[in-house]
Design goal:
Length: 313
């Protein structure tokens, strides 16, 4: 595990006494992920996922847990938090905030087809539509202010030309915002490893712990920047059109969103270039980091800047 809090069978057995989930049959660590500690938990009542939160605090977590419960009630295949015997989603295990959620079917794909991209596009449109009736609000913790501050911290680790490009891009988005576009709840991290595919259909959307309120188009751009990229880090036309058309059929894009698409692609790439630079160069004390390569999103950003008319509907 990337950020590891050890949980023994004795620990989880005692913790499960607060739930009506039956008796423990199996506890298995999940190695993926860089933010939280996760275990597969199998009990006599079913299969679940246990999460211990390594960064988020107990005060921050109700938004995410309530959001997942809301989306699950509206037919979105996402982890549904299980309440304990006192009707709370959130608990404490080994000194960390913890919750247990339903385990979904499917597996992530590394080389998605156009059909799978269309399925994800439609599902993201459904998520955005369902989120409109969610009452809680969470400003984007990795929005413009965070990007600007983080860029100042990481630029010293960059070559001169990369630091100059980073400065220029932060300045560009300070002048060219998406603030007037349709807003709502966004997943904000719907990469391929956060979608479980069951063949060509979406079996589940996972890892909602970057979810927040922001421009819906920004979320579309984040997802396209991962699902629809070629090995050369350029948009694949067939997969991009399949994704966007399927999304549009569920939640039609506005004319303003169409005009803002190039900017949305750039700011989505900038966000992950900056965060990957930050995770690589400024890890927290004691943190075991599985840092992703920042250069991937630097190249994606450069390609978006060079292409003034990116693939659209």
């Amino acid at each position: 595990m990337a950020v590891f809090t050890r949980v023994t069978e004795a620990d989880i057995t005692a913790w499960l006494n607060n739930y009506s989930l039956g008796t423990l049959l199996e506890l298995q660590g999940i190695p993926a992920g860089i933010e939280n500690t996760n275990y597969f938990v199998t009990t006599s009542n079913g299969r679940f996922v246990l999460t211990l939160f390594e960064k988020l605090t107990a005060d921050e977590l109700p938004f995410y847990l309530n959001l997942m419960a809301h989306l699950a009630r509206h037919g979105i295949p996402c982890p549904c938090p299980v309440a304990d015997k006192n009707n709370f989603f959130l608990s404490t295990l080994n000194g960390k905030p913890a919750c247990i959620v339903s385990r979904l079917h499917g597996k992530s794909v590394t080389q998605p087809t156009a059909t799978q991209c269309a399925s994800v596009g439609a599902m993201l449109g459904q998520l955005h539509s369902a989120g409109l009736s969610f009452g809680d609000v969470m400003p984007n913790p990795r929005g413009a202010n965070w990007r600007g501050n983080a860029a100042l911290l990481v630029r010293k680790f960059l070559a001169v030309h990369d630091a100059s490009q980073l400065d220029s891009e932060v300045a560009y988005h300070a002048q060219n915002t998406l603030n007037n576009l349709p807003r709502g709840v966004v997943h904000a991290d719907l990469f391929r490893d956060n979608v479980l595919m069951d063949g060509d259909r979406v079996g589940g959307l996972i890892d909602f712990y970057f979810a927040c309120n922001d421009c819906l188009l920004y979320d579309v751009a984040i997802t396209v920047n991962d699902w629809c990229m070629t090995p050369a880090n350029k948009l694949d036309e067939e997969r991009t059109r399949a994704f966007l058309n399927a999304y549009h059929a569920v939640r039609p894009f506005t004319s303003q969103e169409s005009e803002s698409w190039p900017t949305a692609l750039r700011v989505a790439a900038l966000r992950f270039w900056v965060s990957r630079l930050f995770d690589l160069n400024l890890p927290r004390d004691g943190e075991i980091v599985n840092a992703h390569n920042p250069d991937q999103f630097k190249q994606i950003l450069q390609n978006h800047i060079a292409n003034k008319q990116p693939i659209w509907l």
